[in-house]
From TrEMBL:
One of its GO terms (molecular function) is thiamine pyrophosphate binding. It comes from Candidatus Roizmanbacteria bacterium RIFCSPLOWO2_01_FULL_37_16. It holds the Pfam family TPP_enzyme_N. This is Acetolactate synthase. Belongs to the TPP enzyme family. Residues 204-340 form the Thiamine pyrophosphate enzyme central domain. GO terms for cellular component: acetolactate synthase complex. Keywords: Thiamine pyrophosphate.
Length: 605
């Protein structure tokens, strides 16, 4: 016989290779806490907020490309997880949340005929709350169902389009003694997805025919390639095709700055070169990217408007949304797609796209996001200049994590990645406060590589308590804190649309602490870089330090985030956004037209 909570801990370790559990202790999860704490081979990481637990587990799972595990208690312990949970749900990250619950006899679910809000102390029906943002959510009321439910939940989390799952376990179920021999297994055949093999092979044949007839093909490489563990197949394919590659927000690190096929990044905060490539394409092959509005832009009807759009995605509903409708929707696992593409290409001869490739490389070089004039800043540190200098001194195995706000958009625009580096960001939720917990998760996933966190004075406040987790464990996380006097992106938006400011900085309703004093209170060494002439020397000092370090970068309060697509307010109050190829600051119209293979729309001329 074995206690059920011990069974869970040992099964996660032995059958699924779980090594870390992110948790906060609580009475409603006391048996689970004890089992995760005492089981050899498992390390528990205690954060200081359940939101931080789920964010840490999400970033952990991103880098491990495996499931992240969270353990929280009942009531607010569960509800506090939701921002991190939603981040995993929207970005397709496999996560298992195991929550404690009060005894079965006190659960309102035991008495469905009575419309009660609560019986037990801190009780809440967390399973139904979690259901819309999880792939599977279940309360385990029969101890002898634990093997089945655990295996089913993890299978669902990792199969198809990955995502979070939730198991809620009452106290008297956690503590139950069970006979392992009497436990029933889960059979994946119950829910296994079988693709239409004949259909997807025909679609791949059509894809190759379109590529053979194409003059300006482009591949969009999405994060689904990593989620599908198909990186090696992807690199084999692009080596054979020799087609320009652009990356989405969450897949920047699939390519690197010096790769011969790399054409930049596309989207609202992409590069001019990446957007010119996509918008001028005649065949667009989208692999593992769900094509949200970050990527298509708000004027999505103008996106790649003359291209035959081919989309490969394991989630068929992503290819039905109104904002991106592919001509050929291929509903298949990315690994199966790549294997069949390579197989069919062995029998085909594709044309050379060398002229088109040279053009995309020309755009990428001609229109950098880090401009020479940024070096002239005397009073502060220009964000893009900072990113250029930081890119030079980072090592090829560094892991870069960003917060949200300027640190997110500016880093995605300007960082120059080396082969082997990883860049971790959250796209779908993009919550303020993702930074510190994500960096913690990245450290434990990374076999102790150096973690470089770039965040802002606004975002860091949302999970500031995680500085203690970093300090307590002496994690070698280098924190570059962008001080732009609050919320610069919101200041820009409010100034553009309303010509007045509210809730953006200390002069307009929201204050921010002295982060040098905060770092000192947590026992974390820190420094401040005020001017660009100090940058190179101090960057090296920070990166060479042992343990955690906080380096505050004093950025211009009015730092523009450019290039970007711009939304214009018409006299009648309606909003109109420019198409992706026409980024602000706008190029001279003659120069812009020379870069267009497709016909510009009227608003661009």
């Amino acid at each position: 016989m074995i206690k059920l909570s011990d069974y869970i801990a040992e099964k996660l370790r032995d059958d699924y290779g779980v090594k870390h559990v992110f948790m906060i202790t609580g009475g409603g999860a006391m048996h689970l806490n004890d089992s995760f704490g005492k089981t050899p081979g498992l390390t528990f990481i205690c954060n200081h907020h359940e939101q931080a637990c789920t964010i840490a587990a999400e970033c952990y799972a991103r880098l491990k490309n495996d499931i992240g595990v969270v353990n929280v208690t009942t009531g607010p312990g569960g509800t506090n997880t939701f921002t991190g949970l939603i981040g995993a749900w929207l970005d397709s990250i496999p996560m298992l949340i195991i929550s404690g619950q009060i005894k079965r006899e006190w659960c309102i679910s035991t008495y469905p005929e009575i419309k009660l809000r609560q019986i037990g102390i801190q009780e809440i029906n967390i399973v139904d709350m979690a259901r819309p943002v999880t792939k599977y959510s279940k309360i385990v009321t029969d101890p002898y169902n634990i093997r089945y439910e655990l295996e089913k939940a993890i299978y669902i989390a990792k199969s198809g389009r990955p995502g979070p799952v939730w198991l809620d376990i009452p106290l008297d179920v956690q503590s139950a003694q069970i006979d392992v021999k009497r436990l029933s297994p889960f059979d994946p055949k119950e829910i296994e997805f079988k693709p239409d093999e004949k259909l997807f092979k025909e679609q791949i044949t059509k894809t190759i025919e379109h590529l053979k007839n194409s003059k300006r093909p482009v591949i969009i490489a999405g994060f689904g390639i990593r989620l599908g563990k198909a990186e090696d197949l992807f690199y084999q394919l692009i080596k054979k095709l020799k087609i320009p590659i652009v990356t989405s927000l969450s897949s920047h690190d699939l390519m690197w700055e010096t790769h011969p096929l790399y054409g930049g990044r596309f989207g609202l905060y992409g590069t001019r070169g990446g957007n010119f490539a996509v918008q001028n394409s005649d065949v667009l092959l989208v692999m593992g990217c769900r094509m949200n509005l970050w990527e298509t832009g708000y004027e999505y009807k103008t996106f790649a408007r003359e291209a035959i759009k081919i989309m490969v995605d394991v989630d068929k509903d992503e290819m039905k949304k109104p904002t991106f409708k592919p001509n050929i929707p291929i509903n298949i696992d990315i690994k199966l797609f790549l294997e069949e593409m390579l197989n069919q290409l062995n029998r085909e001869k594709l044309p050379s796209y060398s002229g088109w490739l040279r053009k995309t490389k020309y755009w990428h070089k001609k229109y950098p996001n880090i401009l020479p004039e940024y070096k002239k800043e005397k009073k502060y540190v220009n964000y893009y200049y900072f990113m250029g200098e930081l890119s030079k001194v980072l090592k090829s195995d560094d892991i870069i994590v960003t917060g949200n706000g300027t640190a997110f958009t500016g880093t995605c625009q300007a960082i120059q990645l080396k082969k082997g580096q990883r860049l971790c960001i959250n796209i779908g939720c993009a919550s303020m406060g993702w930074d510190l917990p994500a960096a913690i998760g990245a450290y434990f996933a990374s076999t102790k590589k150096r973690i470089v966190l770039i965040t802002g004075d606004g975002s860091i406040q949302f999970n500031l308590q995680e500085l203690e987790t970093i300090a307590y464990r002496k994690l070698p996380i280098k924190i570059f804190l962008i001080n732009n006097n609050g919320y610069v992106a919101i200041r820009i938006t409010q100034a553009n649309f309303f010509k007045r400011l509210f809730g953006t900085d200390k002069d307009h309703g929201v204050g921010f602490p002295d982060m040098q004093k905060i770092a000192k209170a947590y026992g974390i060494p820190s420094m401040r870089i005020k001017k660009q002439k100090e940058l190179r020397e101090k960057l090296r000092k920070v990166l060479a330090s042992k343990g955690p370090f906080l380096c505050e970068i004093m950025m211009p309060p009015d730092q523009p985030l450019i290039p970007r697509t711009k939304t214009i307010v018409k006299p009648d109050g309606t909003l109109v956004s420019k198409p992706l190829e026409d980024m602000y600051p706008f190029l001279p119209r003659n120069e812009f037209r020379k870069n267009m293979f497709v016909k510009p729309i009227n608003a661009e001329i």
